## 1
Amino acid sequence: MNLILLGPPGAGKGTQAKRLEEALSIRQLSTGEMLREAVASGSELGREAKRIMDAGDLVPDSVMIRMISERVDQPDCRNGFILDGFPRTVAQAEALDAMLAEKGRAIDHVIEFQVDEDAMVARILKRRDEEGRSDDNEETLRKRLDVYRRQTAPIIPHYRGKGALKTVDGMASMDAVTAQLEAIVGAT
Ligand code: AMP
């Protein structure tokens, strides 16, 4: 089974993806985590990505599309994958559709986390203190939310049009969100 989790930063996608990964034996693919690993490795991609991430901007579509295309071909994604943080632009969504069709695969569910922005900001600032992420200062956060509204939210009608879109209440408790997700994917 192949899933996309969609929602603004701090909506709880990462936490829920980790739970689904266990429940369904499919792989969580977090492009944010992949990029943070590249930053930690000090590679050229990492240095460039750090600058962009610290500014709250998006890494170029071509880089991200290649990263995901290579990643879903790895043996640990044979059972399926959960995309967390990708696609983030309409161009990425269109490239993903084409790439998966070429590979003979498809997305089963696109699940949107609906959240209250103010409550979410509070969540992210709490996570900043816990994880020490350098892209979670308040100014960058506002930029990332703005980028989400302008560049990522337009993906929602793209998938709604294809009849693939489901929603969960991202403001519910962690366990309640997991239950909503399990109902969608049919896990017990
Ligand atoms: P995240 O952990 O998903 O919030 O991602 C952290 C940062 O990594 C984002 O603010 C972007 O700068 C970058 N990033 C992650 N995923 C993508 C993507 N699919 N496209 C472009 N940039 C991304």
## 2
Amino acid sequence: MELPYAEPYRIKTVESIRRSSRAEREVWIAAAHYNLFNVRSEQVFIDLLTDSGTGAMSSAQWAEMMLGDESYAGASSYYKLKEAVKEVMGFDYFLPAHQGRAAENVLMSALIGPGREGKGKVVPGNSHFDTTKGHIENRGAHAIDCTVDEAFDPELDRPFKGNVDLGKLEKVFKEHRREDIPFCIVTVTCNTSGGQPVSMENIRAVSALCRNYGIPLFLDAARFAENCYFIKTREKGYADKDIRDISREMFSYADGATMSSKKDGIVNIGGLILFRDEEMWRRCSTFNIMYEGFNTYGGMAGRDLGALSVGLREATELSYLESRIGQVAYLGKKLVDYGVPVMRPFGGHAIFVDAKRLLPRVPREEFIAQTLGIEAYLEGGVRGVEIGTLLADRDPDTRENRYPALELLRLAIPRRTYTNAHMDYVAATLANVYERRNSIVHGYRIVREAPILRHFTVELEPARS
Ligand code: F0G
């Protein structure tokens, strides 16, 4: 028989985690104002809040932490990272930043403006990540979602549901003046629409369209390696190609990229801004020096640059990606076997539970996905994250709640961190909530919220009281 995937590593260091009781969790979640971001991590048994900065570094990465020097300018680890960026992504120019949103801030300061210069401007893309959208909207501009319609049907099993709808994109290009479209951004894989990949064919076509209209194309490359794996396994013509060849081809269609290295860089902190040409790099470097740090460290320590240089290579090893994506699919399949409704196909970094179908009795005004997140926490001490109305936030002009097409609970799997026994526990937790779904009829209402990115700090109370 064909041998299954197995992790291409063994475990050398472990961190203890503790199971708590439901009674303890009831107290903790109330004290956290029913916001899972406010719960202390020691009050969580299995933490699937995010796959960002939560992965396990390899012994090779830890060794690099010691080897890197801490020079303000020109550290050896900077040059190691420069080599890795060229080898894995094909870019000659880059700036380090302390994380992904900082990279976005620098890029948008250069391309939109550092203040409110975005008024009347639009940035099209495929379901922009929330900080990307936050940076666009905070400058007075609008993010326009041009994702293919099939992304919004959670049951539809299609290989590239992260794709950009070329018709929608061209409409934006036609309806706005060239100078009002500072750039287009394509997120690979698309976190907001379920960790779904974008095909090479689509990236190539978006690139050609952008070029026709003279609009720069950037990739949000937080999970670029996972996207490359899906291209290799799902797209015709790529089965025999090396992940790094696929990666370099994918980036070759873009003028640059931002990256949160906390995902496919497998480091705990860090970000990158990547550029094809020197001129754009120069424009951004002024802002990078102001906001992040000098060009050769940009908000990162020398040791972290070194760990990232190793992480980029490890994340683009096929055996690693097989076990990574394999574990996410393992959880997905378990949930399906229990009847729990999840988004299809399974995402690269997470399983997205369809909260509207799991909790059909909770009204949308009471935050369905958030309610499911709280139930999963109460049931088993499992922490996921709401991708629903709280995250969608209010319309910046009308201040009305924006109700997204999908209400999802994201169970994001940290890289190289949990075993499949943990996945079994998570699946059983969700299965138990599903079992008692008809008794869950009320959600939550907002007591306090911030004017932007409200989901991080929102305070809630049960709606029934
Ligand atoms: N882009 C994407 C696609 C992301 O998923 C994230 C972060 C960012 C940009 C911002 O990067 O956190 O390093 O500043 N996503 C995390 C998550 C937080 O949980 O999905 P950051």
## 3
Amino acid sequence: MTTKNERAQGRWNKTVQLNYGTPSISLAKGSGSVVWDVDGNRYLDFLGGIATTVLGHANPSVVKAVSTQIRELSHVSNFYMHEPVLQLAEKLTGFTGEKSARVFFCNSGAEANEAALKLSRLTGRTRIIALEGGFHGRTTGALALTGQQAKRLPFLPLIKDVKFAPFGDLDSLRRLISRRVAMVIVEPIQGENGVVVPPTDYLKGVRKLCDQFGVLMCVDAVQTGMGRTGSWFGYEYSGITPDIITLAKGLGGGLPLGAMIAVTPQAPAFKPGEHGSTFGGNPVSCAAGLAAISVIEKKKLLSRAKTVGLLIKKEISKIDGVKAVRGEGLLLGILLEDINASTLVEVAKNNGLLLNAPNKGVIRIAPALSITDAQVREFIKKFAQSMALIQKGASK
Ligand code: PLP
């Protein structure tokens, strides 16, 4: 007898583009960090919608905010203001600590980086420096900034005048930077590249070089932001202030929402008509984002992300077959010795645990910041069991 998951696969293959392949399960329901598929199988969700569901699924505050908002006012376009967009802009600019900060709202990370790219053109310069291994999105502008050859190749030529420096290497950046450069774009941690962490003084060094040549520094905090790494944007530990910050993923508390914040007075400002998005900053997504921020603040989830992250690092590092664990807060990359990460993702899924493999040597986890202590213990147990199952199979 075919299962509901298998029937869903058949329907998917007949109707949906296969750019994501054919997923093996169709999810039906979620509560906090647990999800169930259409056949009723339960999974502990340690991918968190790829770092989006900061409070997990069906968080009561987010559900209430979204339901109330959609009953009162749904979408109005950007010809009008509304309270949720004003409040969210006030929150985000407040988090930067800069009075000059101004937000542009959109719907995704790629759009936030497109906005940053266009803003940088208003300096009159065109050259961009991005980092090898970096990921900034799939739209053509964001893809042009993405330092991953396989993703770019089928779509060349992309916009010109983008140079790539090795991530974490200030000497190479120093050789490339000049007064022709409009913007350097950098992730505090390269998430899609396998949770790659730069040297501690790297962001400070990038800031210094940008200042020396009058270049805008854009921090892409799409994956590291909204509390994931234990602070609002993921760069704060470095003591710098970027000129531009881009956000998405966790910003909408599980709903689509992106933002580009021009932080310092050095960053240009869009004039009326220079940029836009029909759905950007819509009331429902902004209400969800505000609710998520309020829960993160009330429950002190920034510091909890840090302590839980440290605990997971310590416990997972002890498991046989784990080479190292890197990352910050609840964005962690688990480096495997001899096991293929995709195999582990499959085995863990069959064992009721959802993980992700950004490449064949690394498992990425990005659970909800609201993950409970019991769920952390369940994760450690299931992860160790799944590793042991593979090792047992290999030794037969
Ligand atoms: N920037 C970073 C750092 C990301 O990790 C991602 C997505 O993974 C993006 C941009 C693109 O975001 P989106 O998929 O919402 O367009």
## 4
Amino acid sequence: MTSHKIVLLEGDGIGPEITSITRKILELLFKKHNIPITFEEKAFGGKAIENFGNPLPEETLNACKESDAVLLAAIGDTKFDNLPRESRPETGLLKLRSELKLFSNIRPVKIREALIESSSLKKEIVKNVDLTVVRELTGGIYFGQPKGRINTKEGGERAFNTMTYTSHEIDRIAEIAFDLAKTRRKKVCSIDKANVLDVSQLWRERVIEIGSKYKNIELTHQYIDNAAMQLVRSPSQFDVILTSNLFGDIISDEAAMLTGSIGMLPSASLGSGNPGLFEPVHGSAPDIAGEDKANPIAMILSAAMMLKIALKEVEAALDLETAVDKALAKGFRTIDLISHPSHKPCGCNEMGERVIQELEAIK
Ligand code: IPM
Ligand code: MN
């Protein structure tokens, strides 16, 4: 059996802590399931800027292209805030997504039973939440040209970005959302700002056109402002949310809080052909870096998505998810999840060790 090659990008902030425990968990899981695997750790983000002057060194990009899957923790640090845009950590992430042509970002938002009381919303509101955000990832205002900053004649500066989509970009992400809905509750809600933006008007027209080929899928549309409100008013109305890059970025952080913490949310960034990138929805949390306080679960669940989607190791993925649920059911909680005096507070490393114990207990 040929060995799966996984590139690990630990990145910045809490990245190294959540990566090292996730790697330990995966090594055990692979041994248990007899899955041959090799890990390659590569420089990425702020640390790559410091060591190589580039957030995405050529060597890292090539290793990612040649891998079976890329598992990323998080990048970014406030100390890079004043660097020119092209040499910031986030630019490295955008370049990686774009170079690997990962146009669809799948962000499942499912309430884990043990965490129903951890949400900032009432239990009755969140109890049936099971939605997936399908976010377009390589277009829209993140990448549109022209963009930049210029000095104006009057003295001051002008800065601009362009929100742009082609019908081709909209069609292919819409197909991903409709195909996903077929395997779920058969509902797609497309989120746009078609009452104001031309780009959203095209978005809506194309989504309707693509949707007409999926006879059994119910298609609805919401404006982003209304959707942001609906998501906290009655989140269980959503099945698949289809949206653009920027709106998806915003709405998925909001949706994350339904689950109790943004530290819970995994994601998969996929294209057609190239290796996928599996990354938590959260950032690098530099304020708690190195303090053993981070919640490693979003990265562990991203690894489960990688097992399922990229490596087709479905059984191992299910084991991993079960182990996470069992550790949570026993009351172990990182600080972001504590909502009851009976909870057993634990650090990043211990949370991972508890998952390992549960994995070992699964036959
Ligand atoms: C995310 C992040 C990134 C994004 C940043 C770090 C570039 O917020 O994955 O949601 O905006 O896409
Ligand atoms: Mn984000």
